[in-house]
Write a structure and sequence with these properties.
By secondary structure, the chain is an alpha/beta fold. The chain contains 16 helices and 24 strands. Helices cover about 35% and strands about 25% of the residues.
Amino acid sequence: MLLSELAKPTAHELLGRDVEAGELQYNSRKVNKGDVFCCIVGTFADGHEYAAQAVEKGAAALVVERRLPLDVPQLLVPNTRVAMAEMAAGYYGYPTKGMTILGVTGTNGKTSTTYMLKAIAERMGKKVGLIGTIRNMIGDIIIDTERTTPESVDLQRIFRQMKDENVDVVIMEVSSHSLDQKRVHGIEFDVGEFTNLTQDHLDYHKTFANYLAAKKQLFYQSKKAVINLDDPHAAELMEGLDMPTITFGIREQADITASEIDITTRGVQFDMHYKNITSRLNIPIPGLFSVFNAMGTAAVALSMGWTLDSIKGGLENMMSVSGRLEPLPTGKHEFTVLLDYAHTPDALENILKTVRSFAMGRVVTLFGCGGDRDHAKRPIMGEIGGRYSDFLVVTSDNPRTEQPMAIIDDILEGVKKSGCEHVVIENRREAIRYVLEHAHKNDVIILAGKGHENYQEINGGKHHFDEKEIVAEILGTN
């Protein structure tokens, strides 16, 4: 393909000669001879600074926001992220055409909601593609993922693969970062869903208003909307939207509501009301948040015209979601271990409230906070952890480039306010060993923060760290 052909979908000025163009790349280390390198202006780095390295590796052309003093053809564009997204869609033949695209955004609940939607869509006989935090999937085939929503080039490549595999419905988690960074630019979603908005990612967005604005972008790219009306930001999110919308909630007068809620260790049962129809649902994931996730999922399915029978059948027969209040085998030991991805104040509070509602013994929580991320939430999570737990083990999570004890000290500010009995064990593996070896009969132990992740990020590197394996090794259940 000629560079001029590759550039057709986007506004540009061609500086230099027209040449044969290979694949689009945004990482200079992955450039092969003939590729086109996009100089992405990121949060921590500017791709223009790596352009010379890309040319040395054989890049045939560059996509730039400013002319560079390099002897290679350049596409001068207003925004390299937008240009990359538009060119990637064209390069892969606009693969989303003809496929149904469902997007879910929000601080918490995205992963569980997408798995619920997958279960319903498959109940309807659809072939499903899934893009999200845990993994990407085509039917039952797993594709590894590095981030919740891939970069636009990677995303369009995945769409192409899904299209070639005759996928009917693509279900996506859509992160605030991906919306702000134009990774999903140009994609038209058949339905966009908003789950909730609580404090997270302010290290990136800086203000809550910016965070909300990023989430709202999904609905400017959607044909229909589904909104959690109980969320305090719902009205602001819905302001100015002109599209068919279904709302859900328990406290507010929404289109879909729930009553007669019964939460047990095995799951949650409730009556879901929509128009003049009431359905009794039995969801195999405990917690009030599962009621909200199920209602939001049902709203998306109803927006698509899917049947109530398929909604009920899909939700009631789905498997538990990896790292989402997931029980781990404990063998002969008379205590419970639950693995959960909760890494925001709201998510941690929801999980702990849920566990408190059914725990017969102590609620023991092990958690930390990620490095190079929102510092303000650390003491908040410490206080929440202490308020709803009988005992806390404060440890490391993904410290990244920060010192683990500096992160722990921030958490302890909140823990001390709660007055909860606690210990500090920086090494997370040893912290898990401690909590298991000191467990009492009927304790419910929550390992919070890592969930499905099978690594720790320390000093810029990823190290294998799978809490399922660690628990099994310590308890001898492997």
